Amino acid sequence: MSRPVFSFRPNLEYPEHQKAWEILKSVPEGQKNLFLVQAILQKDQAQYLEKMIRGAVREALDGIRLEKDPVLEEPESREQEIPGQMLDFLSQME
Fold it and tell me: What does pTM read for this prediction?
């Protein structure tokens, strides 16, 4: 059985590709395969951890009842009164 082959051909016109290429070039010869395997597995683990954390936070927030904050309410729901001093100031500007 032959080993799978992967070819990495970055397009150096893209900053992400250029940065990835610089990092990969800095890996010593003979260690590039191990480096790529570890990077792929780390990315997979990070996605798994993110999914688990999101689930835990969602579960924790399900039990919390949020009350409306009058400061954060929509402007239509707040009283639209302009203070008298501001009206006086604006009338003086005319």
Answer: 0.55
